[in-house]
Amino acid sequence: MENFEVAREDRAGISILRLKGFLDAHTAPQFEQAIQQLISEARYRIIVSMADLYYISSAGLGVFMGFIEEIREKEGDIKLSNMSDKVYKVFDLLGFPALYHIFKEEAEAEREYNEK
């Protein structure tokens, strides 16, 4: 079975989820749970850092789509950062860059939150 980890770091009003490994149908529920936890704590300013994410399937992408509307209704957002070219290609293929802000670095995403 593939390894997958979600590490969470909370900073002043922003939560960062760092994904590591393979995000697919088997591991998507773990990621879903991490986002659900943030929502239940009313933490809607989220950065998902993918520096150590090696693979994402449609099930993994579905998690993003499953929560974005609810989070944006609460004045929040999910910003994405640190994607490898391979992972970015999957997001790009499905039109995600039109729906999500994608940053090269986590710090850029954080800066955009802090400017608002």
Q: What's the architecture in CATH terms? A: 2-Layer Sandwich
Calculate Rg over CA atoms: 13 Å
The level of helicity is 40-55%
| SSE string | EEHEHEHHEH
Q: Say how many strands there are.
A: 5
Structural class: alpha/beta
What is the secondary structure topology, with strand pairs?
Blueprint: E1 4-11, E2 14-23, H1 28-40, E3 45-56, H2 58-73, E4 77-81, H3 85-93, H4 96-99, E5 102-103, H5 106-115
Parallel strand pairs: 2-3, 3-4, 4-5
Antiparallel strand pairs: 1-2
Helix pairs in contact: 1-2
Characterization of this structure:
With 116 residues, the protein is of the alpha/beta class. The protein has one domain (4-115): Transcription Regulator spoIIAA, CATH 3.30.750. The chain is built from 5 helices and 5 strands; from the N terminus they run ββαβαβααβα. The protein has helices spanning 28-40, 58-73, 85-93, 96-99, 106-115, and strands at 4-11, 14-23, 45-56, 77-81, 102-103. Strands 1-2-3-4-5 form a 5-stranded mixed β-sheet, with helices on both faces. The protein starts with a strand and ends with a helix. The mean pLDDT is 95.
Question: Which structural traits does this protein have?
Answer:
116 residues, alpha/beta, Transcription Regulator spoIIAA, five-stranded mixed β-sheet, 5 helices, globular
Give a summary of the structure in a few sentences.
The protein is an alpha/beta fold and 116 residues long. The protein has helices at residues 28-40, 58-73, 85-93, 96-99, 106-115; strands spanning 4-11, 14-23, 45-56, 77-81, 102-103.
